[in-house]
Amino acid sequence: MLYSMTGFAAAQGGISGWSWSWDIRAVNGRGLDMRLRIPDWIDGLESDIRPIIQKVVARGNVTLSLKVSREAGAPTQQINTAALTQTLAFIATIEEAAMAQGVNIVAPSATDILSHRGILEAQGEVAEDTGPLKSALLAQLPTLLESFNAMRAAEGRALGDILSGQVTRIAELTETAQSLCAARAGDIAAHLRTTLAKVLDNTDGADPDRVAQELALIAVKSDITEELDRLAAHVSAARDLLAQTGPVGRKFDFLTQEFNREANTLCSKSQNAALTRVGLELKTTIDQMREQVQNVE
What we know:
Blueprint: E1 7-15, E2 18-27, E3 32-37, H1 45-56, E4 60-70, E5 77-79, H2 81-100, H3 110-114, E6 120-122, H4 131-183, H5 185-201, H6 208-222, H7 225-243, H8 249-269, H9 273-293
Parallel strand pairs: 3-4
Antiparallel strand pairs: 1-2, 2-4, 5-6
Helix pairs in contact: 1-4, 4-7, 4-9, 5-6, 7-8, 8-9
């Protein structure tokens, strides 16, 4: 089954005090390029997400965005109990020292204590335990990726149908070329005889081996048997790739280059209008196929 490199999925979730939304999208790329836009205050989240994505995506430019926010009515700050205990101990020590010196000190209010640096912390600071939030996010990520891959698989099935039809068309054109090649055998033979006569008329005193080489070269330039055989082999290879389940985009892209090379050679050797038309239609179909292959993972 083929997978498209393009896809999109979104999800929302939440736990007590937190809510979030994220989306993942991908477009074509030569390799795998991941861009993660996630809160950096959730310790270790990015390093845990990357290998999970790499297990399900092989190619493409992938962007994952995550937005985390406090639920309405949830506290936006928390007390650092360790800092509070230390501050209260300091206050008690100062009060005892002041009383020993006969100095009266007005007891600080709760507001005064909270204003001391480090007592109040904004929710989401590194000091906060983000473990439960991180665990909840990682638990939902597979569901997000499953939806993402479902879309890529649906597009992959459509791509597979298009590519299969194009491969079938190439196979049909190759068979047509083979028939035309057999039909033009008489014309080629007549052409070779005419060429041979011209060569022999102008080879007085020429090296016989050199004449033989030139005649052999003329024959090779008009023979498209190897090109047709390779086209048939490429058709078989393309169908094998379409039947595979892993990433095949790179291999398929290389195969389209091989298809195009044989079609170009066929056109240059055709020496026949009908065969040239077949070669040009082959090139058109191969170009269309290559455009589709750029979307395959």
